[in-house]
Amino acid sequence: MIAPSRSVAVCAQAISDIGRLRMKTRAARAAAVAGLALLLGIVTAGPADAHAVLVATTPQAGYTSVRGPDRVVLTFDEPVSDPSVRVTRSGHSVALHRPQGAGRQVIVSPARALPTGSYTVDWQVTASDGDVVTGSFGFGIGAPAPTSKPHAGTAGLPAAIVLRWLLFAGLSLLAGGLVAEWALRYRGVDLPRPDPPLRTGAALGLLGAFGLVAHLMGGGSLLEGLGHPRLHLLVATSAGRIALTELSAFVIALLVPRRARPVLVVPVLAVLIAEGLRSHLHGRADGFGAPLLVLHLAAAAIWVGALLHTVRVGVAWRGQRRALRELIGTYARLALWLLLVAVASGTVAAIVLLPSLASLVNSGYGQVLLAKMLLVAGAMGLAAVARRSIQGDGDPPVHWPTVRAETVELTAILAVTAALVSLPLPTGPATFAAPPPAPTGPVVAVGTLAGQVTVSAQAAAGQLLVRLTVPDDVSGKTTPRYRLTAALAGRSLAAKSCGTGCFIATPTWRSGDNQLRLAVTATGWHGGTATLHLPWPPRPESRILGRVIAAMRAVPTLIDAEQVTSDTSRPTPPAAPLRLRGAAFIATEPYGTGGPAGNRTAGPRPGTRRLLLAYPAQGYYVDLTINAADRVVTETISAPAHLIIRQFRYPHR
Predict the structure, then answer these.
(1) Are 127 and 116 in contact (CB under 8 A)?
(2) Which of 249, 211, 203 is nearest to 130 (CA)?
(3) Helix (H) or strand (E) holding 644
(4) pLDDT, tens digit, 9 for 90 and up, residues 458-506
(5) Sheet holding 502-505, edge to edge
(6) Average model confidence (pLDDT) for the chain?
(7) 54-154 in CATH: which number?
């Protein structure tokens, strides 16, 4: 996004340039100033990420609990607004308090305790890009959960696609008409010069933008938006402000007088920037995603609009073989550059947006993108045929059926593009997946830090659950995209996403020490690698910790060489020796007053033992190495965003 200070400077320079244009009406000057104010508003309005995805639920979707929850929590991968939640049991609605939204979470509480039964939760939120997303999931209380799978989708999707196609068509007529009028000039003879359909484009764009505003205010319903508009959404949400900006841009374009056509560049830029800020690309590639989408959409729009204007001029110049040949040749050269820009930017966009090559064929978004690629290839073929037709001496020099077919092809490309920006992205690292049920049976729980990413792992029979978090993961900001690669005993271990920062695998544990190597990344944070040693089978031990606490309290003096880091990807500060009384030390430890039973295993050196302690509610995991006298030799504590490593010496034996 353009910085506000830079935006002001750009617009100030543009105002100075417009002052030197030969505008003979006050309306032209007013339109110019309004357009520049619009552009300044959109570049400082803030981004709108694309399509909220439900990543976790409480209660867990598809599972049954013994007692009813006191609230239902929906967690999304981005901030949402205007939430609506309905809970039903056997087709009857459950009384709920008003939903409360806090950034990425929507929380609703039942008015009274929920009895035994199967429940369905239907929800609706407005994403940051303005699309209304709906879905449902089920859970059970002392009874099986509903068998239907969780699902989510965009409300009013067909209407949104049609309206955005109208907006893109209007944008193409405006942008392509302006460029074509400037580029496709012929001075050889005095020929009629049809005006580009700029007002038609402004009218089409205005119709699409108005419909999208109503669609947003109606929660995905045009009729609802027109009959009972929720005007606060246009001001309270970034999606509303962007939709209102696009509507204002086309109003200005429709009012710009003929003699002030250069001013039309401003509302065209405003619409392009608005589309960039609300795009999938901006959400996935903050920094270069929006400019890349602006470049791609501008190239496609000019390509379509310029071809339509070329056809209009060509029809008017029938019989003027030399003029027609130069007209089509000029357009062909322009179209070649536009094609290169559109294909290059589209390729980069596909690489960013698609989580894998397989998603090109096994997801709705990928299939529509594949259709667009085929249409572009067809348009390229038609353009090549048309170009060859003007290289000979035949009469007429232009094969008009081919040109008309190319026009239809490009119009279809706009329609497919409208569908792409309205469809949810294929599921990647932040897919819909409620957290899996807690592992059953004996569990070994450990934790560590990889870069700045806190890692916690729970190992159970045939199951490994890994959770990744970063320091501000619950701040309400957009959650980082996490990736994890795992290897067990040197062999790759397939880990599947089970929600944001959640991964699950099904390993086969061997008896003894299992070395688990994890490589983790989180966008915006330093990632890294970490090695966890998981003993198997679990050997719960409740008595050792009591003996360790007693032995440490009895120590008159100990020397603690302590290293603390919040980022293991950087050099760790040198150890800071501290001299303490044993009782003072143990009073500061998370296990100082006892705790749950730990898992016991053999230590790294003869005569030592390891004791693994877990406090998941606080995010603490402790790995103790204990000598034969029940004193702690080494201690590793994994806490949220910190890793503490201590080496102990005892001057007095």
Answers:
(1) no
(2) 211
(3) strand 642-649
(4) 888 888 889 898 885 444 445 688 999 999 988 999 888 776 788 888 8
(5) 444-450, 453-460, 463-469, 502-505, 496-499
(6) 76
(7) 2.60.40.1220
Angle between helical axes of 265-277 and 157-183 (0-180°, round to 10): 140
Residue-wise DSSP of 149-207: PPEEEETTHHHHHHHHHHHHHHHHHHHHHHHHHHH----SS----PPP-HHHHHHHHHH
Q: Which residue has the tokens 């070994």?
A: 444
The DSSP string of 592-605 is TT--SPEEEEE-SS
Q: Which two tokens stand for residue 394?
A: 């035949």
| Helix (H/G/I), strand (E/B), else coil: 392 | coil
Q: Where are the domains of the chain?
A: 4-44+156-422, 54-154, 444-649
What is the widest separation between alpha-carbon atoms in the chain? 109
> Which three-class secondary structure state does DSSP give residue 383?
helix
Task: Quote helix, strand, coil % in the chain, to nearest 5.
Answer: 40, 25, 35
pLDDT in tens, 190-248: 677 788 888 888 899 899 888 888 887 777 777 777 777 777 767 767 777 888 888 88
For tokens 């959640």, the residue is 502
Q: Rounded to an integer, what distance in angstroms lies between the CA atom of residue 520 and that of residue 501? A: 10
Q: Average pLDDT for residues 275-294, to the nearest whole number?
A: 73
What is the pTM (predicted TM-score) of this model? Answer: 0.52
Contacts of 504 (CB under 8 A, 6+ apart): 436, 463, 464, 465, 466, 495, 496, 498
Reported as a single tens digit per residue, the pLDDT across 149-169 is 555 666 667 788 888 888 888
